[in-house]
Amino acid sequence: MPKALRLPGVVLLLAILATAPHFAQSIYYERPVETAPQEETIGDGYKTPEVQKPLPRHFWLQWLDVLLLGAAMGAAVWIVLARRRRRWLVWLNIASLGYFGFYREGCICPIGSIQNVTVALADPTYSIPIVAVAVFFLPLFVALFFGRAFCGGVCPLGAMQELVLLRPVHVPRRLDQALGLLKYVYLGLAIVFALKPALSRDFLICRFDPFVGFFRFSGEASMLTVGAVFLIGGMFIGRPYCRYLCPYGGLLSWTTRLANRGVTITPDKELDCGLCTEACPYGAIDKMRAVRRKCLYCARCYESCPRDGELAHAKEELIEIGGPR
Amino acid sequence: MSGDTTRRDMLGQVVRGTVLAGMGGAALFLTKKADGQMVWQVNASKCINSRLDAADAEVCTLCTTECVIALSAVRAVNEYSKCGRCSICPAYFDVTSAVGDDGLPSQKLCPRDAIERKPIGKIDPEDPANNFYEYIIDEVKCDGCGRCVLKCKEPLGLGSIVLKVRYNKCVDCNRCAISIACPKDAISQVIKTEGLESSLASHTD
Questions:
Q1: Residue A68: DSSP 8-state
Q2: Domain count, chain B
Q3: Would B8 be classed as within a structural domain?
Q4: Cβ separation of B81 and A38 shorter than 8 Å?
Q5: Per the domain annotation, does B164 fall within a domain?
Q6: Is residue B56 a part of any domain in this protein?
Q7: What is the mean pLDDT of residues B170-197?
Q8: Quick check: B52 and A31 CB within 8 A?
Q9: Nearest CA in chain B to A19
Q10: How far apart, in Å, are the Cα atoms of B39 and each of A127, B20, B73, B164?
Q11: Is residue B178 domain-resident?
């Protein structure tokens, strides 16, 4: 019996030695684990149970997140650009908030991935997950063609603010533009802090995320308060975080400038009634034209339009009902 | 007029193509560089609770209090094959509490009652103190406070309980809040490789 016992002991020692370089600076102890009674000693057919080892999400499940991100953006583009309906978009918002927000607990997100990409570009020793790369670039590629579909359809932070927006107030244009510069300052700061050497490196965007605490039902009281202030303010000022602070929103508005498709106000259909300008909570309609870099894909303009969207469709139905008997 | 529009369109397409190529290049570069997922890991020989030299130290509960998710992603694990299966387990019982009628300490150590104790092997009803007992830590109840880890040490324990990360709960923060707070730098980020299961499994001492 001792021989049988000794072999696992040697294997264990080798395993311990093999992992030793991982903690070269730590104090090393020989744990008297060999004295632990094994199956033979315990007897009566005892089998040592498996130790629970909860593993990270499967790799393909992480790709599922990327796939869903792409699919949700596709759905947003289709609903807003082809269907021109707001109601469906609200459901997409709720679904995104549920999955990317509450189920995935706000991680992994393109906003935070700015920092990972920055570090990966600057620090050759830093290892970036492939999923983070995909999550960072996908919304930017979509924005290059269709505008900020990510903001309108997928982002859980955006969806949260979108859903609390009850009585939108128009922010004066000058103030709106001045506050809009804040996000570039924030982007700059986030990059500067991410570029610091590994030990003093900080991830500002993640640390000062005002809404992630809600998704996880826990967090620092100070950040939860900031989040609550954003949500209460967001009942009147449309999506304050997205418009004035979100660093990824800054990147998206740059790439959106090049987009060849996006929310449009069709010149040969318009009535010059200005209802869409009134309806846009984000100041993204200027002189009866959509400002794509500011447009957050909410489709409120279509909803309010008497010649397009739901109102116009409703009219068609009315005509049909009142028409031929 | 229409010529103007075309020229503008074309210019737009050229700029878009350039940006697309630039971003694609960066994406490709990063994709090639991307070498897997980083995971946070507790180093048992640095952790105050599991280092063997600090049996009488105060328990460190930072893993419970600092984690950003509601129930900490760190929990205690009993490596069964290294467990002494003691009758009076110093991690299960509060050994300083009064001894009851059954000859066992009356209080349990775990504030959340997350450890189950059950006799195993050949049971001798005449001499229960000489039986072996299995100590099973409830994965769902444990919040990683480290009290049991601190007590499972020589001379009473063998050091079979260590703190580990629940990888199904850990949200992989860019900077783990526990690692920022940890006074002994016992939480570090490692690259998750193909052999994650085996490397994490052997990383107990």
A1: H
A2: 1
A3: no
A4: yes
A5: yes
A6: yes
A7: 82
A8: yes
A9: B203
A10: 11, 32, 12, 12
A11: yes
Q: pLDDT category, A316, cuts 50, 70, 90?
A: low
Q: Is A56–B192 a contact, with Cβ atoms under 8 angstroms apart?
A: yes
Could you read off the pLDDT of B3-37 as tens digits, one per residue?
A: 556 787 888 889 989 999 999 999 999 988 886 67
Q: Can you tell me the distance from the alpha carbon of B76 to that of A169, in angstroms, rounded to the nearest whole number?
A: 52
Residue-number span of the structural domain to which B191 is assigned = 35-202
A-B CB pairs within 8 A amount to 184
For residues B126 and B117, give the distance between their C-alpha atoms in angstroms, rounded to a whole number: 19
Residue of A12, A26, A35 to mutate for B, most B C-beta atoms under 10 A:
A26
Flag if A27 and B45 touch (Cβ within 8 Å): yes
- ipTM (interface pTM): 0.78
Give residue for tokens 């694609």. B24
pLDDT in tens, A86-126: 999 999 999 999 999 999 998 879 999 999 999 999 988 88
Distance CA B147, CA A229 (A): 38
CB contact under 8 A, A32 and B158: yes
Which positions 34-93 of B are in contact with A (Cβ < 8 Å)?
Answer: 34-39, 43, 45-46, 51-53, 68-70, 77-85
pLDDT higher than 70, residue A261 = yes
Q: Three-state DSSP class for B42? A: strand
- In which band, very low, low, confident or very high, does the pLDDT at A322 lie, cut at 50, 70 and 90? low
Its pTM stands at 0.81
Max CA pair span of chain A: 98
Q: Which of A66-75, A94-103, A187-196, B191-200 has the lowest mean pLDDT?
A: B191-200
